[in-house]
Design a protein that fits this description.
There is one protein chain. With 329 residues, this protein is α/β, with parallel strands linked by helices. It folds into three domains: 7-50, lambda repressor-like DNA-binding domains (434 Repressor (Amino-terminal Domain)); 64-160 and 292-320, Rossmann fold (3-Layer(aba) Sandwich); 162-289, Response regulator (Rossmann fold). The chain contains twelve helices and twelve strands. It has a six-stranded parallel sheet with strand order 2-1-3-4-5-11, sandwiched between helices. Strands 7-6-8-9 form a four-stranded parallel sheet, sandwiched between helices. A two-stranded antiparallel ribbon has the order 10-12. α9 (191-206) links the parallel β6 (181-185) and β7. The termini are far apart. Pfam families: LacI, Peripla_BP_3. It comes from marine sediment metagenome. GO terms for molecular function: DNA-binding transcription factor activity; transcription cis-regulatory region binding. Keywords: DNA-binding, Transcription, Transcription regulation.
Amino acid sequence: MPVRVTADDVARAAGVSRAMVSRAFTAGASVSAGKREHVLRVAQTLGYRPNLIARGLTGQRTGLVAVVAGEISRPYEAWLLEHLVRALTLHGYRPLLLPALRNTNVAEMIDHALAYQVDGAIVAAGSVSRDIADRCRSSGAPLVLIGRVLEKSGADSVCCNNGEGMRLLVERLVKQGRRRIAWLGGSADTFSDQERRQSVEQTLKHYALSIQAQRRGDFSFQSGFNEGLAIMDSGEAIDAIMCANDAMALGVIEALSQRGVLVPDDVAITGFDDVPGAAWGRCPLTTVRNPVNETALEALQLLEARMQAPSSNPQVVRVGVTLVPRESA
C-alpha cells in the first residue's frame, strides 16, 4: 500500500521548512515567486496534495463548498446541479456533493459537511430548519438556500418567482377558454409547491374560477403518469391539467395518450421549469422557464457576499421567469 506523502516530506526534499511548504500552497502568503515555484515543483514530483481539512482547522479557507442536492435522477435537480457545480468550479471552489435522497436527514448531512470545514453550504433540496441555519452560522459557514425562503433564519436564499410563473400559465389557459382546470401538485412540504398552488388558486379566483380536481405526486415522471391516469379515471370533465413541475407534466401527457385523450385538443397540459426534455416528445410542453444558470450564479454571489460580510442582513433574491408556449397548451 503506497505511503501518503506529507508536507514534511516535501520540506525535506525541497530543503525548506515545513512552514515554507504551507506558505507556498497558501494564496497571498509572503513567499517569493521563485521559492513558491520550487516548492510546488518538488511537491508535484512527489505527488503531494495539501490536506484541506487540516487547513480548515487552522482557520484558513479550504475552498470546499457543500452542495446538498435533490434526487438527481429527476430532470430539474440534475440540470440545476450541473450549473451549480460549473459555477462553483469556475470560481475556484471545490463542490462537496451530498445527495439528499428520499427520507434523508438534511440536518445530519449539514453536520457531516461542517466536519469537513467547508467554507459554506448551498442547499438545493430537503427541509431546512432554523436549527440547521443556526448551526451553520455558529460554525462560521454561510448557508444559502435554493428554491426556498426560510424567514428569520439568517440564511440567504435564491428562488424563482413561482407566483408570477403560475399566473402566466393560468391566464394563458383562461384566454384559450379553459374553465375546468385540475391541479397536480408535488410534495406537500416543499416551498415551491406551496407558492405555485397558492398562485393558481388566487389567479383562478380572479376569473371567478376554482380548481376542479386535484391530485398530488412527488415531482417524478412516474407520479405524473399515475396521477394523470387517476384524474382521467375520476370521471371529472377536465379541460386542462396544471402540474407543479415539468417531469410530472410529461408523465401526464404520456398517461393521457394511453387513454386516447388528445393534448391539447381535449385537455391542455402545463408544467414548470422548462427542463431540456420539455421541448421534446410526442407533445412539446407549455411551461415556465426557471433560469437555472442565473439561479446558480446568484447563489454563488450570495455565498461570497456572506463570506465577506458575515453579520450583514440576510438577502432573498427572486429570479425572473418566462412563459414558454408550446403545443401542449
